[in-house]
Amino acid sequence: MNILILGSGGREHAFAWKLAQSPLCDTLFVAPGNAGTAQMATNLPISYNDFPAVTKAIRDNKIDLLIIGPEEPLVKGIVDFLRLQTGLASLRIVGPDTKGAQLEGSKDFSKQFMQRYGIPTATSKTFTVVTLQEGISYLETHSLPVVLKADGLAAGKGVIIADTLADAKTALYDMLDGQKFGDAGSKVVVEQFMRGIELSVFVLTDGTNYKILPEAKDYKRIGEADTGPNTGGMGAVSPVVFATKAFLQKVEDKVVKPTLAGLQQEGIRYQGFIFVGLMKVNGEPFVIEYNARMGDPETEVVLPRIQSDFVEMMVATAEGDLDKIAIQVSPQTAVTTVLVSGGYPGDYATGKIISELERLDDVMAFHAGTLEKDGQVLTNGGRVLAITAQANSLENAVRKSQEAARMVQFDGKQYRKDIGVDLIRYSD
């Protein structure tokens, strides 16, 4: 079949790499893609937020299966848009409609959803500019530190952890009155701070049936030992040593099942991925957030561990047949180290020549922000490459990923040298 992936990052390169392995994949397209996806697919120079252009590409290329990578087109309603187009009734789509994407698109919606269905999460309250003074009064009685979250999509920058009351008040004023995050911050969720260790669990659902994919832990901060500002993700590990069988069973029983039951109760037919960001607190799972798609760079460690035919999995998701397939998972450990541009997550330059990629052996270099020009691969984003290695132990996977990260060269290259190291030493 003909398959189209929407997106341009490491997640989409990992999707393309996995889909291309299937004998069911005839022709693969990525819009807009990157230098990595160009090695196994045809890149289409269109924006994934240009819904008419995406529709035309689907028609022109006789697409049978569409996989939507990023959150933005999902939240903006691309699935609903496509479902209204004539002649596309048979198009298989992996990705939720606008109602389902609210799990990620609105923090307020997701918190209320969790409260309605008894899903464990931090206590919270939502405020707007109209209730700003009420929010200030609420902060005065709240324990510290306190978490403030912009309600909408803010490119991963809409969360502030305030250690003092003064900082919390300033943040609330800045977000609501000062419109620090624009429309995304028109509502602010004030949330209890939880102490624990984070991980992510990924659910694939066809609206009725579900499969739980391999879990992962990512590393958000730019600096080693989790210091410095947050980023889109500096690395990831799968499996996660502290995600014991007993703990994952709690996740399934207390989070996954009530989440899917809640979606059905609300009449939301959700067909796609649900990313569940979790905090393990005293052995219990608490939901930090939902995402309506796969994570990045977590996808780059999850997909290499899946041994089943990925096209079959995607078709079963779109057709409501997930109960008819089994998913095989490799016992190996996967570690990805993200190479980023100098200055990231602040201002950074692009157009730097990337070299030594051809020397990589027994690792995957998933392209995140790259561009091919005149036969050379250039940097074209903050996160540039995700270097994924697999091995029979966490120590060996860390070593292989780090060695490859050292080998690849471009001007200003930065990366964390401690991805996964905390898990080698981890004890519950």
Automatic annotation (TrEMBL):
The answer, when asked if Ubl conjugation is one of the entry's keywords, is no
Q: Which intervals of the chain form a coiled coil?
A: none
Molecular function GO terms recorded: ATP binding; metal ion binding; phosphoribosylamine-glycine ligase activity
Q: In which pathway does it act?
A: Purine metabolism; IMP biosynthesis via de novo pathway; N(1)-(5-phospho-D-ribosyl)glycinamide from 5-phospho-alpha-D-ribose 1-diphosphate: step 2/2
- Could you name the domain of life of the organism this protein comes from? Bacteria
Q: Which reaction does it catalyse?
A: 5-phospho-beta-D-ribosylamine + glycine + ATP = N(1)-(5-phospho-beta-D-ribosyl)glycinamide + ADP + phosphate + H(+)
Indicate whether ATP-binding appears among the record's keywords. yes
Q: What is its EC number?
A: 6.3.4.13
**NCBIfam families with a match to the protein in the record:** purD
Q: What protein is this chain from?
A: Phosphoribosylamine--glycine ligase
**Species assigned in the record:** Spirosoma endophyticum
User: Corresponding gene?
Assistant: purD
